[in-house]
Amino acid sequence: EDQVTQSPEALRLQEGESSSLNCSYTVSGLRGLFWYRQDPGKGPEFLFTLYSAGEEKEKERLKATLTKKESFLHITAPKPEDSATYLCAVLWLGYGGSQGNLIFGKGTKLSVKP
Amino acid sequence: DVKVTQSSRYLVKRTGEKVFLECVQDMDHENMFWYRQDPGLGLRLIYFSYDVKMKEKGDIPEGYSVSREKKERFSLILESASTNQTSMYLCATARDRGETQYFGPGTRLLVL
Q: Poorest-confidence range of A73-77, A78-82, B56-60?
């Protein structure tokens, strides 16, 4: 069973059509949740870190929120240049040597058509 | 700005070859990580290092080793490349464990 699940796997939007991506997690003892953007053939680019339920972060058309078991990445009036794969990762208390390591979801591939 | 560089963007190797992937960071970060990324499997941690000459196994260390002789440099070694090691390899760095990880551009390795 995946510890971090992202949905949907793929999302196609028209330019200007707002939507949300979901990241749910089953680990206990969350220490942080990270959102990244990844363009094809490139490394992930850091977007946000959230540490506690109720926290929100914004950057341009993106807003990330966190509850006790999930996070949302809201995209307001997206543009074609927002097309990318969005990854979330959780940092948890873990056990033994895994403490301090990230667990990644498989990502949501976003396509924004003009 | 954190800068993480990887020695090659694309690499083609033959089965059985020894392969070196190098990662260099310029931010004086203590922690460095090697991941591989495969379609449908996401990012999986191979090895990490929290200090010079220190290394820890991640989730999938089999077939790999690492070297960290200097703080800024973390190398991933495929002792004898196999076709199932064809993948995108990503290096990341973080100031402290549990803090934001910053990624390099990735190396796409093809093993024939």
A: B56-60
